[in-house]
Amino acid sequence: MSIKVRALNAAGVTSSNIISPVYVPDRTSGNFTLAYENLPNKVKLDWSAAAYSVKGGPPVYTVYRDDNSDFSSQKSYVQMLRIFR
User: Fold this and answer.
1) Is residue 72 part of a domain?
2) Domain limits for position 38
């Protein structure tokens, strides 16, 4: 598999270089556990590292925030933060 990225604006398109080969993960990341600690004016999050395969590479973690525990809020926003651990 090969990958490239394109940037598009009103003036046109620019393509990045091509990277190849790109390995597709052979399985999803393993289970992990989330914990938290309430601190003054903030919450500290911590989690165990998810297991991964060498071919798949280490996982990227995305943190979501919503007012509802089922993430169904229509009025709230979902905040994402990508974390490499």
Assistant:
1) yes
2) 25-84
Q: How is residue 32 annotated by DSSP? A: -
User: If we measure between CA atoms, which residue out of 31, 36, 84 comes closest to residue 61?
Assistant: 84
Alpha carbon distance 63, 32 (integer Å): 13
Split the chain (85 residues) into runs of 10 and give each run's mean pLDDT. 79 85 70 90 86 77 76 59 56
| 18 falls within a domain | no
Q: Residue 9 and residue 19: Cα distance in Å, rounded?
A: 23
> Residue 38: how many CB atoms within 10 A of its CB?
8
pLDDT confidence of residue 69: 80
Instruction: Name 22's Cβ contacts closer than 8 Å, sequence gap at least 6.
Output: 1, 2, 3
75 part of a folded domain: yes
